[in-house]
Design brief:
The protein is mainly alpha-helical. It has helices at about 10-35, 40-65, 80-95, 100-115, 120-125, 130-155, and strands at about 5, 70-75, 125. The chain has a three-stranded antiparallel sheet with strand order 1-2-3. Helix 1 (about 10-35) runs parallel beside helix 3 and helix 2 (about 40-65) packs antiparallel against helix 6.
Length: about 160
Amino acid sequence: MTNVAITSVDAKHILTKCSEVEETVAILYRYFSRLHLGDKEISALFFKTALEEDEHANQFKLAYRLHGAGMKSIRTDQQSVDAILNKLKSLYETVQKKSPSVKEALNIAINVESSLSEYHMNSIVVFEDPSLSKLFTSMRKNDELHVEMLQEALESL
């Protein structure tokens, strides 16, 4: 993948799609939270994780609104992000048709988090400003924590 200048139309499209990826994951987790209301801890875990995904989406929206200030380029392309978004939307449609058990939902979430860890601000955007880079570094750390929390919940079943 080649780097795309952050001020280009392509980069803005990519940032918008990355935000949509995060929003779609949040929608999926809110669905899992509602689906498993009978298990308060699992429901709360999915809801909390959904809120954090909303925050990730907001970080991409902020990057878009900053018009590249403090950012140099983006390390992905439209096709890659579009493919991920399409897979997530398809996954969401699938789980709505056949509601996953708690174990299945946790496994799905772990797979989603693991596969998306490379599609976050600190790995997609090349920063010129180190302080701005630090601001977005927390997103990847959150995903690592998501996997740990989801894995612990799965193992406790």
